[in-house]
Structures are given as structure tokens and as C-alpha cells.
């Protein structure tokens, strides 16, 4: 059976501490259980309902077996980032989440790969947790948000975190969150339908034009949800770079198209035609299976869009596991 690795799968602990009120913290998600329902709340308001497959690892492994997928790369749900909290509180929450992810990886080493989270609001605190993630927890990477308290990812205060991740050999997954313009998108789920793709292009362009990728050639970084709108507007982005370098190329004069083979994206496009275009733009060695499991906006059967393309076996191997193993720097023998 061909090895399949879902690089984009979210998980939560069965429970986590309520840190609201600690060092002035407020708005940190809490979990309430009522009448067999599992409800994420923020400041007493409903945020999202989750189901047992959001935290029950045995159920998840069973469901993945039904999909024909052997390995899930688990990371926290972005609402847990809590970048707006005091650094010490963010660290405490991050460590709790990371310990839970590491526990699952240790218990199921052939079925689970864990990504950690760090308090991006404070570089020194984040770097300390990066060190623990690698040395103590043995996780191969982290997941971060597409912005940090509305600061783009080229913000100078964030660069030391990316530099440390590169030095430590940790992979990074960038996930959209706190979508720009969300206050103007109150209806129709538009922050998720429209804002998410734009948010990822914001993140990629910031790291390219801000020179982060140029300064850190060893950084292994993946952008979730197929890279959002970036791959589909690279022509416009490149055209702007060529025509108005005085506005676009102020911090980095390298053509943005030259970075396509320096970043990874997952396959969450919800459209085989879009996925085919994504492969044409990015290259099959830069695209990897992702699903956004277990949420409604995710691909409901991981890998179905890849299957629909009827690609040659070698291309399928790259999409289903090869690119992921290269991004994470893990040997395939770990999962047989």
C-alpha cells in the first residue's frame, strides 16, 4: 500500500486549563461539555462545536484507516494560538498543547507526527519553547499563524524566531488566522471563504518581499490551504514586482517567482482542476497531501482530490508522502 501522510490535521487535548484571569489574560478559549456536546467558548460566547475525533486519537487513527491514510500530522486548532495574551500565559498554554501532541506522537510513532506551537508574541519566549520542542519533545516542527496580532510575518521582531527554527532544523506550517478585513465580512462565513485565501497570500508575499526567505535559505516552510490565493495570482504579483519595483521590491529585489521551489503548500483546494493548476505552478515536489481534518471546511476524504487526477504512480508518491517527508526531514522507514 502506498504511504499516505496527511500534513494538515488539527487536534485538541481532551481538556485544558482555564488560564483566563492569570496575569491579566482574557479571551483564551475554554471547553465546556453539555449534554454530550463539546463546545469551545471565548469569554462565555460560543465559538465552535467539536466532536470526539477532535481529541480521541484512537478514533482518529481508525477513521484515517478508513480513508486509506496511514499517518496524520497533528497540530493545534488556530484559535488556541492566543498571541494576544501575556507571553508567560502564552507559554503555559503552548507547553500544555505541545505536551499533549508529543504524547500522541510517542504513543503512536507510526501513525502520528506532531507539530508544536509557540508564543509568537515574544521572540525570546518562543525560541526557548522551540528548543524544548526539538530536544525534549522530539517534534519535527511547529505551526504558526499567518500574522501575529496583525503584524505581518516580515516584522523584524519575528525574524529571530524564524532564524532559530532554521538553525534547529524545525519545519514550519503557516495557517491562516485572524483574517484581515474580518470586521467587514460579518456574514456568509466570508472570513473563511474569502479571507483565508487572501490571508495566506499576505503571509507568503510578506516573507518574500520582506526578505525573510532570502535571508534564511534553509527555512523549510509550508503554507496551508494550498497557499491560498498566492499561486493563482503569482502572475499579477510578479507583474507588479516588474512594473513597480519602487513599491514592491523595496526590501528584496529577487523576483517572487524564484521562491516557488523554496516553499511547500498542502493540497487543500477543494477542486481537482485547481489542484492540477497548483501542481503546474509549484511543482509536484512542493505540494503535499493535506485535509484540514476534522473540520467541515476540510477535505472530507483526505486525498480524494489527488486521486481524482489519476496521476502516474511516481507523482502520487510525491504528493502522498514524498514532499511531506522532505519538508519534515523524516525517513520513510519510520512509518512502515
What would a concise description of this structure say?
This protein has 336 residues and is of the alpha/beta class. It has helices at residues 57-67, 87-107, 123-135, 159-168, 190-209, 212-215, 234-243, 245-248, 272-282, 304-308, 313-328; strands at 5-10, 30-34, 37-42, 45-50, 71-75, 112-116, 141-145, 171-175, 221-223, 263-266, 287-288. Strands 1-5-6-7-8-9-10-11 form an eight-stranded parallel β-sheet. A three-stranded antiparallel β-sheet has the order 2-3-4, with no helix packed on it.
What can you tell me about this protein's structure?
The structure is a single chain. This protein has 336 residues and is an alpha/beta fold. The chain has one domain: Alpha-Beta Barrel (TIM Barrel). It is 37% helix and 15% strand. The protein is globular, with a radius of gyration of 19 Å. The model has no long low-confidence stretch (mean pLDDT 97).
| Main beta-sheet annotation | 8 strands, parallel
CATH fold description: TIM Barrel
Proportion in helices: 25-40%
Cα distance spanning the termini: 10 Å
Mean pLDDT: 97
Q: What strand line-up does the widest sheet have?
A: 1-5-6-7-8-9-10-11
Give the structural class: alpha/beta
Total domain count: 1
Q: What is the H/E order? A: EEEEHEHEHEHEHHEHHEHEHH
**CATH domain class:** Alpha Beta
Radius of gyration: 19 Å
Q: Estimate what percentage of residues fall within beta strands.
A: 15-25%
Tally of individual helices? 11
Principal-axes shape call: globular
Going by CATH, the architecture would be Alpha-Beta Barrel
Amino acid at each position: 500500500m502506498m504511504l499516505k501522510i496527511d500534513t494538515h490535521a488539527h487536534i485538541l487535548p481532551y481538556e485544558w486549563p482555564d488560564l483566563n484571569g492569570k496575569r491579566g489574560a482574557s479571551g483564551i478559549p475554554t471547553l465546556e461539555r453539555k449534554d454530550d456536546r463539546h463546545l469551545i467558548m471565548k469569554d462565555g460566547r460560543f465559538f465552535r462545536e467539536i466532536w470526539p475525533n477532535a481529541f480521541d486519537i484512537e478514533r482518529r487513527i481508525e477513521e484515517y484507516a478508513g480513508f486509506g491514510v496511514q499517518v496524520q500530522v497533528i497540530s493545534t486548532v488556530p484559535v488556541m494560538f492566543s498571541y494576544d495574551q501575556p507571553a508567560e500565559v502564552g507559554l503555559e498554554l503552548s507547553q500544555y498543547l505541545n505536551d499533549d501532541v508529543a504524547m500522541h506522537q510517542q504513543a503512536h510513532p507510526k501513525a502520528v507526527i506532531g507539530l508544536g506551537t509557540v508564543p509568537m508574541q515574544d521572540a525570546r519566549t518562543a525560541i526557548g519553547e522551540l528548543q524544548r520542542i526539538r530536544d525534549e519533545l522530539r517534534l519535527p516542527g511547529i505551526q504558526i499563524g499567518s500574522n501575529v496580532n496583525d503584524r505581518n510575518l516580515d516584522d523584524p521582531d519575528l525574524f529571530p524566531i524564524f532564524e532559530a527554527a532554521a538553525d534547529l532544523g524545525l519545519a514550519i506550517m503557516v495557517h491562516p488566522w485572524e483574517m484581515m478585513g474580518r470586521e467587514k465580512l460579518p456574514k456568509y462565513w466570508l472570513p473563511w471563504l474569502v479571507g483565508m485565501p487572501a490571508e495566506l497570500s499576505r503571509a507568503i508575499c510578506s516573507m518574500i518581499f520582506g526578505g525573510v526567505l532570502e535571508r534564511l535559505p534553509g527555512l523549510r516552510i509550508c503554507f496551508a490551504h494550498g497557499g491560498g490565493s498566492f499561486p493563482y495570482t503569482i502572475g499579477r504579483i510578479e507583474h507588479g514586482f516588474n512594473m513597480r519595483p519602487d513599491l514592491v521590491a523595496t526590501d528584496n529585489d529577487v523576483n517572487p517567482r524564484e521562491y516557488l521551489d523554496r516553499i511547500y503548500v498542502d493540497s487543500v483546494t477543494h477542486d481537482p482542476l485547481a489542484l492540477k493548476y497548483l501542481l503546474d505552478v509549484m511543482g509536484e515536489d512542493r505540494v503535499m497531501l493535506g485535509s484540514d481534518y476534522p473540520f467541515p471546511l476540510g477535505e472530507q476524504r483526505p486525498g480524494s482530490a489527488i486521486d481524482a487526477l489519476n496521476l502516474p504512480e511516481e507523482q502520487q508518491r510525491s504528493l502522498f508522502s514524498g514532499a511531506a517527508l522532505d519538508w519534515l526531514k523524516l525517513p520513510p522507514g519510520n512509518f512502515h
